[in-house]
Specification:
With about 270 residues, this protein is of the alpha+beta class. The protein has a domain at about 120-265: Rod shape-determining protein MreC, domain 1 (Thrombin, subunit H, Beta Barrel), CATH 2.40.10. About 40% of the residues lie in helices and about 25% in strands. It is built from 2 helices and 12 strands, in the order H-H-E-E-E-E-E-E-E-E-E-E-E-E. It has helices spanning about 1-30, 35-115, and strands at about 120-125, 135, 150-155, 155-165, 170-175, 180-185, 190-195, 200-205, 215-220, 230-240, 250-255, 265. The strands form 2 sheets. It has a 6-stranded antiparallel beta barrel with strand order 1-2-5-4-3-12. The model has no long low-confidence stretch (mean pLDDT about 80).
C-alpha cells in the first residue's frame, strides 16, 4: 500500500489541487461581478478546447444519428420489399385462381349442355417429341376412363383416349398424323375426314363442287362411333380447288389451343 502511495502521490496531489482550484474558481465566479485576470486566462485557454470538444461530440452525435436513420431506413426498405413480394405472390395466385375459375365455368356450361356423362380431368404432361402429339390426364380406369373415349373442352374436340391405366390415361390429339375424325361443314353439310397435320388439320374427301369458304365451321359428323355429332373441330383456313381431281384441298385451324390445354372433359359413354 505504501509503495502504491509513493508511486502515485504526485498524481493524487495534482488532482486534489486541481479540484480545490476548480472549487475556488466556482465560488469566486458566483461572488464576483467582473472577470479577473486569472479567469480571463482560463477562459482563453479552455474556450477553444471546449468548443472543439463540443464540435467533436456534435459531429459524433450527428454521425450516429445518421447511421441509426440509415439502419432504420434500410430495415424499413427490407420490410417493404418483403411485403411487396408477398403481395405480388398473393396477387399472382389470385389471378391464377380467377383464370382457372373462368376455364372451369366454361367446361361446366359445356357439360350441362351435353346429354352425355362426362368426367373432368387435368392435363399433367404432354409428349415432348415431334413425332407424336399426345397428353396425359390425371384420370384412368378407376374413374371409368377406357380406350377410345372422346376428350373435349368447351372450345371443341381435343382427341381420344388411346391408353388407360388405373389412375392415368394418354390422349391422342386430333392434330396427330394418325388421328382421323369424321366431320362435316356446318353450313352446307358437306362430309369429309379431318386428319392431323402438325398444328393444323386437313379436311379430306370434300368434293370439288361443294361450296366451301374460309371461316366455315367444321364439326363432327357422328360417323365412326367415337365422337358424338355436332362437336366443333375447327374453322376453314384455306381452300384449294384444283383444276383436276375429284376433291378439294382444305386446311382447317383447330378450335382448341393445344399449347394452353389444362382442363378437359372425358365423354364417358355415347349418347343413347
Amino acid at each position: 500500500m505504501w509503495e502504491w502511495w509513493r508511486k502515485n502521490r504526485p498524481l493524487l496531489l495534482g488532482g486534489i489541487l486541481l479540484l480545490v482550484a476548480l472549487l475556488w474558481y466556482s465560488v469566486n465566479l458566483r461572488q464576483q461581478d467582473e472577470t479577473n485576470f486569472l479567469e480571463s486566462v482560463v477562459l482563453r485557454l479552455t474556450g477553444p478546447v471546449q468548443a472543439g470538444l463540443d464540435r467533436a461530440i456534435g459531429g459524433v452525435a450527428d454521425a450516429w444519428g445518421r447511421y441509426l436513420y440509415l439502419v432504420d431506413t434500410a430495415e424499413d426498405n427490407r420490410q417493404l420489399i418483403e411485403e411487396n413480394r408477398t403481395l405480388r405472390a398473393v396477387l399472382t395466385q389470385s389471378d391464377e385462381v380467377r383464370l382457372e375459375n373462368q376455364r372451369l365455368r366454361l367446361l361446366l356450361d359445356f357439360k350441362e349442355a351435353q346429354e352425355i356423362d362426362t368426367l373432368p380431368a387435368r392435363v399433367i404432361a404432354e409428349d415432348a417429341s415431334s413425332w407424336f402429339r399426345t397428353v396425359m390426364i390425371d384420370k384412368g380406369s378407376e374413374q371409368g376412363v377406357t380406350e377410345g373415349m372422346p376428350v373435349v373442352v368447351a372450345e371443341g374436340v381435343v382427341g381420344r383416349v388411346v391408353r388407360s391405366s388405373p389412375r392415368f390415361a394418354r390422349v391422342l390429339l386430333i392434330t396427330d398424323a394418325s388421328s382421323a375424325i369424321a366431320s362435316l361443314l356446318q353450313d352446307n353439310r358437306a362430309r369429309g375426314v379431318c386428319r392431323g397435320q402438325g398444328d393444323l388439320l386437313v379436311f379430306d374427301f370434300v368434293l370439288r363442287q361443294e361450296d366451301v369458304s374460309v371461316g366455315d365451321r367444321v364439326v363432327t359428323s357422328g360417323m365412326g362411333g367415337v365422337f358424338p355429332k355436332g362437336l366443333v373441330v375447327g374453322h376453314v383456313k384455306s381452300v384449294d380447288r384444283q383444276e383436276f381431281g375429284l376433291f378439294q384441298t382444305i386446311a382447317v385451324t383447330p378450335s382448341v389451343d393445344f399449347s394452353h390445354l389444362e382442363e378437359v372433359l372425358v365423354l364417358l359413354r355415347s349418347p343413347q
